[in-house]
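Retro notes
What went well: the complex prediction finally ran end to end.
Inputs used:
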Amino acid sequence: MTEIGRGQMKVLATVQQKGGTGKSTASLNVAVAAALQGYRVAVLDTDPQGSLQLWRNLRRKRWPCVEELRSEALAGWLARNRLLFDLVVVDTPAHDGNTIADAVNVAHLALIVTQPTMLATSVAMRLRNLFIDHDIPFAILLSQTPPTLTARLVQWTDNHRRLGTVVQGQLAYRFAYQDAIAVGMGVVEYEPDGRAATEVQIVTEWILRRLELLNEP
Ligand SMILES: Nc1ncnc2c1ncn2[C@@H]1O[C@H](COP(=O)(O)OP(=O)(O)OP(=O)(O)O)[C@@H](O)[C@H]1O
Ligand SMILES: [Mg+2]
């Protein structure tokens, strides 16, 4: 069991103005992995598309707690619930700058979930520049990467390191991510010994450390 810091709720916002890069997939998988480690986790879905609502309705477990919330209500919700959760993951929509701004303003860390393609990177760069201008702590998570480590992928990772801190680990393109969502699970539950589960554990541990929710060596 990990050393869990109670009473110091941390907020992670997953963001990227480009659609379909894997924000909701990363949100729910990190939330499930942290919940399985014993953290009290909430996922706040600020996207009217409702992907996480759909996933929650397919789900049979109580944790993580999933709620739909307008971004204007985030600060109030966090204040009211600050003793009830260790980690709150705020999933945001693409294309909606106001919601993204509301989310990152209450977050301890903005996670830019992006893909190693020129089009995704160009959008991620705009967000990264805004975050630097406004002193918003951020990190970059690469998603839907090729499942094998190629010279091309190493080059993309190095390119992103020039933009800012890159999360250790990546979420490769794997059907397990899609299949787990379809049955209301995270990959660590759906295929605990699979490669996707290993990826999510590495990424989750990095995030928990970065948020100082995990202090063990
Ligand atoms: N690592 C992955 N491997 C395979 N498929 C993935 C992966 N990540 C996401 N997907 C699939 O890609 C699609 C988009 O993912 P997701 O909904 O998580 O992205 P998003 O950034 O939240 O999208 P939106 O901008 O619409 O909110 C989904 O069908 C999802 O199942
Ligand atoms: Mg989404």
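What we learned: The pocket of adenosine-5'-triphosphate (ligand 1) is lined by residues 19-25, 47, 49, 51, 93-94, 143-144, 171, 173-174, 177-178, 181 (CB under 6 Å).
What to try next: split runs per interface for comparison.
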